[in-house]
Amino acid sequence: MRRIHIFDTTLRDGEQSPGASLAPEQKIIIARQLAKLGIDCIEPGFAVASPGDFAAIQAVSRELQTVEIAGFARAMRGDIDAAVRATQDAARRRLHIFISSSDIHLDFQLKKSRDEVLRIAREMVAYGKQFVEEIEFSAMDASRAGREFVIELVEGVIGEGATIINLPDTLGYAIPEEYGDMFRTVRKQARGGESVRYSAHCHNDLGLAVANSLAAIQAGATQIEVTVNGVGERAGNCSLEELAMAIETRQAYLGAKTGIVAGEIYETSRMVSRAMHFPIAYNKPIVGRNAFQHESGIHQDGLLKNRNTYEIMDPEAMGIPRSMIVLGKHSGRHAIKHRLAQYGITLTDDQLQEVYEKFVDRADTLKIVPDGELIAMASDSTGMQQDPYALVDLQVVAGTQRSRIAAVTIRDQAHGSERTYTGSGVGPLEAVIQCIRQAIPEAAQFEDLELHSLATGEDARGEAVVSMIRNGERYRGTAVHDDMILAAAQAFVSACNAVALTARRTDEMATDAG
């Protein structure tokens, strides 16, 4: 198996995505997580761009002594000097020097001839070689450049000491076959071409960044440059999680592997999404909300019998919560029965049919039926109260000049009692959560809240998804309502009920075993 090195540029190229700016302290936190993920080389920023970027690169270089750090620089002395100073405390470092190679860039951006660009590239690689042993040279826009000039440029920088050659698809223009052919041609025809390592840096303008990166691997590249969640300029870069899992899943075919720790993928994705305020698309491969969820009754039935029937990867191995069954209008009786069984609720065939009929009617309206509503349907059919707690009433007072105040009434179903609790917070949701925490002992560590509009217009219904952590286990609650605050409150109560029902079922199983 060839070892493919993963070069992460989330903190440099990813941050260049409009609106994705990160503070230096955020970069350090993300860099720590990238190290845990198993990244081989981190590019923390562009040292000459700003004092903040310089400070972040310096801090990352000092702290992360087990990861190689890349100092990014244009083929200019000032850039190289800044990159060298910022990374001087790194245990292992490289200079990443780039210059344009396509005629359109040379004519309209640099306004220089090919001979001038070749001279500058050679001089700056030689200058950088004084400071570091490892030099990565990028021929920017190589996929749109004349092949003969790319070869000449590569020969020149190899002669001056470049050790890694990056042939970027800067505009996401390449097709996999031609991108792979470029690597084969350069490796074969450039003098010294077989003595260096090759890297691919692909953008996703045509949705081919991962495909092009895989083509580069098949053509001999041993390093791929990626970003978490595929963030980056325009349509973004090659997605770290997609590339890593493509290699992992098709390892035998590709004859390649990485050092990525799969169990850290989900946490890394969420961390970057939150820090950059970039939501992840529902259908995003690997980390999207729907990536491992199934509503079709046929798929659900197959999954319940054997996961491999409709999944080629194990989401839990990537740290993704197991929530493969989504209950919507396409769901079947098997999925409903299975979901209720997770809460320790068993139905007869007649009761299951009654719940199913109610479920189908409700699913036409809600699209996705929350667990709390399904449990309520089961309660109606069995005549037994299943969910431990119910949200009876909620009132919130909000204003611009004061803290938000909430009052929440919760019914304890087991005892038939109702109590009202009050709380305050910076925002209305914080105030509501404070109230519910007082009312429900099972309320665990609040992990995350997602709010989604299920339609457009003033009458759009909102979906809230709350996740919480208790004893290392993740619990989710969902709710749908016209009022987003109320939906979030119901989802939080639903998550608390999931904790309570799971604990109740565990106690019952222990009693039976005893």
TrEMBL record:
The keyword Transferase applies. Pfam families: HCS_D2, HMGL-like, LeuA_dimer. Pathway: Amino-acid biosynthesis; L-leucine biosynthesis; L-leucine from 3-methyl-2-oxobutanoate: step 1/4. Keywords: Acyltransferase, Amino-acid biosynthesis, Branched-chain amino acid biosynthesis, Leucine biosynthesis, Manganese, Metal-binding, Transferase. GO terms for molecular function: 2-isopropylmalate synthase activity. PROSITE patterns: AIPM_HOMOCIT_SYNTH_1, PYR_CT. InterPro entries: 2-IPM_HCS-like, 2-isopropylmalate_synth_dimer, AIPM/Hcit_synth_CS, Aldolase_TIM, LeuA/HCS_post-cat, LeuA_allosteric_dom_sf, LeuA_bact_synth, PYR_CT. Its EC number is 2.3.3.13. Residues 4-266 form the Pyruvate carboxyltransferase domain. It is an enzyme of class 2 (transferase). The keyword Manganese applies. Belongs to the alpha-IPM synthase/homocitrate synthase family. LeuA type 1 subfamily. This is 2-isopropylmalate synthase. It comes from Paenibacillus aurantiacus. The lineage of its organism: Bacteria, Bacillati, Bacillota, Bacilli, Bacillales.
